[in-house]
Specification:
Length: about 140
């Protein structure tokens, strides 16, 4: 019974935060943010992958999109490429996502080390016995 109460409070808090975010965005911009549900879904799926001990695809996607954004920044500022602007673009677009990915991987390695138990691969399905084996 306590589990149901905890689950209800958790789900209620998630829905309340989602509703509050929709209201805040609409109050400021007067536009309904349709993809907000996708952001929640990405967050939930990323958490689910972290809980199973895997690196979420969203972290790798952030690094790839950071490289693309860096290339677009270089293309946009190709006429006046100064070292300060290139370094700032590299720090924001490449170094930050790579640092976050490295933090996630390091935390997972440390967690596995101190967890005391290794995450095992899924067990193979047991073989079915044939009719000849059952009869004997």
């Amino acid at each position: 019974m306590l589990f149901l109460l905890q689950d209800g409070i958790t789900n209620g808090a998630i829905y309340a935060l989602l509703g509050l975010a929709l209201v805040l965005v609409f109050a400021v911009t007067r536009v309904i943010l349709i993809p907000q549900g996708e952001f929640v879904t990405y967050g939930a799926l990323s958490y689910a992958m972290l809980a199973t001990g895997q690196v979420p695809g969203t972290a790798r996607l952030a690094v790839a999109m950071g490289v693309v954004a860096f290339g677009l920044d270089l293309f946009a500022g190709r006429r006046s490429l100064r070292l300060k602007l290139v370094a700032r673009a590299a720090a924001i677009n490449i170094v930050l996502p790579v640092a976050i990915l490295a933090l996630i991987v390091t935390a997972m390695l440390v967690w596995d080390h101190y967890d005391g138990k290794k995450r095992a691969a899924p067990a193979a399905r047991p073989r079915r016995k044939s009719a000849d084996t059952i009869v004997r």
